[in-house]
Amino acid sequence: MSILSGNFARSLTHGIKRSNNNLRMLETLVTEIEEQNWSRCRPYAEIPGPKPVPFLGNTWRFIPFIGDFQIQAVDQVSKRLHEEYGDIVKMEGLLGRPDMVFIYDANEIERIFRQEESMPYRPSMPSLNYYKHVLRKEFFRGNAGVIAVHGEDWYNFRSKVQQVMLQPRTARMYISAIEEASLAFLKRISKLRNENDEVPDDFLNEIHKWSLESIARVALDVRLGCLDDDANEETQKLIDAVSTFFVNVGILELKIPFWKLFNTPTWVQYVKALDTIVSITSKFTAAALTRIKETPKSDKEPSLLERVLALENDTKLATILSLDLFLVGIDTTSNAVASVLYQLALHPDKQDIVYKEVCNVLSDKDTQLAGRHLDQLKYLKACIKETLRMYPVVIGNGRCMTKDTIISGYRVPKGVQVVFQHYVISNLEKYFPRSKEFLPERWLQTDSVRHSFASLPFGYGRRMCLGRRFADLEMLVVISKILQHYKLEYHYEKLEYHINPMYTPKGPLNLKFIDR
């Protein structure tokens, strides 16, 4: 028996050594192939793109009156660059920041995502990074969340919270809380309508209130009352501050970074907005933490804050997670909902299909939503996907190269920021035939061959949007409830889309909500 065991052990050891040798040979071969490919590829300098000028580089293009690029029209700038230069475009000479390489090829995007390391770097946000790690470092104390954070700090934070944030079954535990906020929004719509059943010019702000109320219910298990007539003034201050933050990010990141030399008016506004966000969200979170300590445990679903505390027992980590959720969860989800409602109003035939589907799934308006209901809303999900394909709330994302990389046959050096231009890609005919048409059906066709990396409204991979499960849920719940009670119409000139600060219809969203 021992002889057999010894022979087996020696055979196993020999096999492992042989496997390890084969693995090392394979790794060496791959390295050699990569080195050969690198030598055969075209140099970085040959990547096409707009030529920089002395001193101002390409930054001058974003200067008002003299530049030919407008920050509010980055979508059109991106389309123009693709039309002029092709599937890969280099934007070099940006003062105070690395070069950017724009990618318009879904195959290349997939390849970059598939080979990314465990701690991928997103294009930096120097302004937010400075705020978190220098200006307000005493508050964050090395626990700065996931936004504008990289490396070990990002990895440690993300690892601790993603178990709670990214599990679909966890998100579904909050359907009733989101439904409560959505029903409050429906009552608000009823009050806001004029004699023609139209909502006022600032209707998008009301959707922001619904989004904030939903986040507070899920993250903190608190009712803020954002949609009440006597709503706390702090809730509107928080919404305004988040909007100011996003508006000013583009200015600080793309224009000449004078803020690094002195306190520009934009920088002062930006810091004030962030201070407001930190102050108000910290106040909400502190009140929730006190309630958790003082309230006996019940059968009620715990908030995300409670779930994170149960796993990590770290109040600071839970507080920063709440801050990140409020910072990036209000405007993004609310603008997506606004865009879907607008598209459904523009396409009454598609809206009618969704309405019939909702009626089949929820025969009674008072039926409480459950996960099984949402699973059946397939056409509504397709409408949301199609809207975000045509008009993604965030028109692009990317990666900062942590090593020399071959992209589209060019040698792209470490440190370059590679930006995936999702808005342009998802509106190209080669990926989505009849791309200019609103066709939710394309997402339901089993025989349709779609490139899975041609439309990525929530990003992909290890740095995919941390709150996407909740955003999906919030959109499904509120839109289904709205269509249960109202028919949507729009009777004005068609609105263009612009970035302000998310990609959203430009102009007042005077939708008509007609009682069903």
Give the tags:
18 helices, 54% helix, alpha+beta, 516 residues, two-stranded antiparallel sheet
Main beta-sheet strand count, sense and barrel state: 4 strands, mixed
C-alpha end-to-end distance: 81 Å
| Strand and helix order | HHEEHHHHHHHHHHHHHHEEEEHHEEEE
Strand order of the largest sheet: 1-2-6-3
Number of strands: 10
* Average predicted local confidence, pLDDT: 86
Number of helices: 18
* Inertia-based shape: globular
Q: Level of helix content?
A: 40-55%
Q: Strand share of the residues?
A: 5-15%
Alpha-beta content class: alpha+beta
| Unreliable stretches covering 5 or more consecutive residues | 1-20, 26-32
Rg computed from alpha carbons, rounded to a whole number of angstroms: 25 Å
Could you walk me through the main structural features you see in this protein, from its secondary elements to its overall organization?
The protein is an alpha+beta fold. The chain is 54% helix and 7% strand. The strands form four sheets. Strands 1-2-6-3 form a four-stranded mixed β-sheet. Strands 4-5 form a two-stranded antiparallel ribbon. Strands 7-10 form a two-stranded antiparallel sheet. A hairpin with a 2-residue loop joins strand 4 and strand 5. Helix 12 runs antiparallel to helix 13, helix 13 packs across helix 18 and helix 14 packs antiparallel against helix 16. The protein is globular.
